[in-house]
Every structure is written in C-alpha cells, then in structure tokens.
C-alpha cells in the first residue's frame, strides 16, 4: 500500500510509513516515546488550515498521508508558497520559537496527520538524543530546500523554475515509492499553486508548462504528472538530485 492511501494507525508500531522502507527504523524505546508524545491522529479535508499565521497553536505535526503546503501572505492577500509537504514531513516547530506561527500550513489534498505535544521537546532531546538528532536533521533539510527555492526564485529563468519544481517533487515522490514504472505520479498542484511557489504570474506559468510539454519533457493531465525525459528535465533545471537514502521520521 502506498503512503498516499494509508489508513491511520492506532499504534506507531503499525505505521505504514515506517513499513514503506523510505524511513529509518527505530528502537522499541524510541518508538514508544514517539507514541507517548503523539496526542492525536486526524484526517482533514483539502483546504483545511492546520497552522494559521501569527497564531500559536502549540502543536507539531507529521504529515502521514496526502499533500500540504507552507505559505506566507501579505496584507493584501498575495501569497508565497514556501514549500510543499509530502508524507513523512514534519512541521510546526518554528512556532515554538516565536510568539505565533511565522507561516501557515494548508492541506492541499485530503490529508492525515499525526499531532504531537510541542511542550515536550526538551524531554525528547534529553531522553532520546538520536531522536533529537533526527529532528535537527529534518530542520537542516528544510533549510536546504528553502535555500534551493531562494536560488530558484532569485536566479533561475521561468523555464528553469518550472523544471526544477517538477523534478524536485518527482524525486521526493520517487523516494516514497509514489512513482509508477512509467514515471507517472499523482500531482494535485494547480497552476496557481505552482505560480505562488515560483514567483510567476499565472499566465507565465501556463505558457512555461506548455513549452516544456512541447519539448517532450513532461505531460500533466487530470492531476497526474508524467516525466517523459527526467534526465533532460534535470539538466534543464540545473538540479543536483540527493541520494535516495532513508530519512528520519517522527
């Protein structure tokens, strides 16, 4: 069963993500602590706001199934999508270091999340240093992705921006086992989502997608992406793919 279709487990030991092979295995004591730290599991509809900007909800999350995205908005409603969240991604930590959340998180599709108690972070670091390292690793990985996003919006052309978004999400989905043998995968992003993530107008995003498709690099239809030539798309994006190693999972 793929991570996007997993039923919510009642016990962390029965976690379908951990059984997927994409994530590190944990000792029984570490798994027991995570289960104790987890306060709830929730299913939310597409469009549900999990974290509101400038509001301290005090909860931390792991996305268990579905897609979500982090974003910031200006006073006139303009939105910048910071990054897209896939199964296994951890979020909400930054609100522990400010008076309110510095960003929002919205479910892009119907999604399932594991909810954790944010006030027990010190206990995690003290009792389970390896889990503390995993948490630090996840934060460093997010910073690395944001660095790449800044390079994309600051220096890449429109063609390169769309190409790097497609190949980056494709590689992340591939790591999770969500890419079929024909290089196709579910892709629920609208062109507006892509425009908001890439700093492009909706019209420019549409034209760029059509140009990439005319080059025979991809097709995108009915919420499904097919990469016709991943190698050429990677070269066009000037994208350095990361090794397909296992990831931490809280």
Structural class: alpha+beta
Mean pLDDT: 91
Oligomer: single chain
CATH topology of the largest domain: Jelly Rolls
Please tell me the CATH architecture of the largest domain by its name: Sandwich
Topology:
Blueprint: H1 28-37, E1 38-44, E2 49-51, E3 59-65, E4 68-73, E5 79-85, E6 90-91, E7 104-107, E8 111-117, H2 121-127, H3 129-155, H4 158-175, E9 184-186, H5 191-198, H6 202-214, E10 218-221, E11 224-227, H7 230-237
Antiparallel strand pairs: 1-8, 2-7, 3-6, 3-8, 4-5, 4-7, 9-11, 10-11
Helix pairs in contact: 2-3, 4-6, 4-7, 5-6
How would you characterize this protein structure?
It comes from Pseudorhodoferax aquiterrae. Pfam families: cNMP_binding, HTH_Crp_2. The structure is a single chain. This protein is 36% helix and 22% strand. By secondary structure, it is an alpha+beta fold. Helix 4 (158-175) packs across helix 7. The longest helix is centred in the middle third of the chain and has 27 residues, at 129-155. The model has no long low-confidence stretch (mean pLDDT 91).
């Amino acid at each position: 069963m793929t991570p996007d279709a997993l039923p919510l487990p009642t016990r962390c030991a029965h976690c379908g993500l951990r059984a997927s092979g994409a994530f590190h295995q944990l000792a029984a004591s570490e798994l027991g602590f995570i289960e104790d730290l987890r306060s709830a599991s929730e299913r939310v509809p597409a469009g549900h706001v999990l974290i509101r900007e400038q509001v301290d909800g005090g909860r931390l999350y792991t996305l268990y199934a579905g897609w979500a995205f982090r974003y910031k908005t200006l006073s006139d409603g303009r939105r910048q999508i910071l990054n897209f969240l896939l199964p296994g991604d951890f979020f909400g930590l930054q609100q522990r270091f400010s008076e309110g959340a510095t960003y929002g998180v919205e479910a892009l599709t119907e999604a399932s999340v594991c909810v954790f108690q944010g006030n027990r972070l010190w206990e995690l670091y003290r009792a389970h240093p390896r889990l503390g390292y995993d948490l630090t690793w996840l934060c460093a990985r997010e910073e690395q992705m944001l660095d790449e996003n800044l390079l994309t919006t600051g220096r890449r052309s429109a063609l390169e921006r769309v190409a790097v978004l497609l190949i980056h999400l494709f590689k992340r989905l591939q790591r999770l086992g969500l890419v079929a043998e024909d290089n196709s995968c579910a892709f629920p992003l609208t062109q507006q989502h892509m425009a908001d993530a890439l700093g492009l107008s909706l019209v420019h995003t549409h034209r760029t997608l059509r140009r990439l498709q005319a080059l025979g690099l991809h097709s995108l239809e009915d919420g499904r992406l097919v990469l016709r030539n991943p190698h050429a798309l990677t070269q066009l994006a000037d994208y350095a793919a990361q090794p397909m190693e296992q990831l931490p999972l809280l």
